[in-house]
Amino acid sequence: xxxxxxxxxxxxxxxxxxxxxxxxxxxxxxxxxxxxxxxxxxxxxxxxxxxxxxxxxxxxxxxxxxxxxxxxxxxxxxxxxxxxxxxxxxxxxxxxxxxxxxxxxxxxxxxxxxxxxxxxxxxxxxxxxxxxxxxxxxxxxxxxxxx
Length: 147
Known about the structure:
Shape: elongated
Strand content: 5-15%
Distance between the termini: 75 Å
Mean pLDDT: 94
Strand order of the largest sheet: 1-3-5
Structural class: alpha/beta
Radius of gyration: 35 Å
Largest sheet: 3 strands, parallel
Order of helices and strands: HEEHEEEHE
CATH class of one domain: Alpha Beta
Low-confidence stretches: none
């Protein structure tokens, strides 16, 4: 066996279809493009979404909404959920993740004032509602806003 007599195995390759090479080939005259019309012409491709001149669906439907680039997403925690912590403990983002109150530390944390808290704890989060601050301080705890 030499490099000059290497061939693909029999049946593994096909000859390409030679269209437009006379009627005897079976693919002559219209060269498998049918009769006339836009798709029979050279360069006659139709863009996706084109509806023959009718206003396309994606332009007939109204645009809705937008995504603001500067939107801050918060993980929300109510103070009633903070009862799982012991008296005097320091509650920060890592502690909230470890107790399963928030899924991850990817987003900022906001403490909301729904419910009541009876334990004095030190809470540090990115934001607090005013009612949450008042209830934590009234229970003898402290509040720290982190940037």
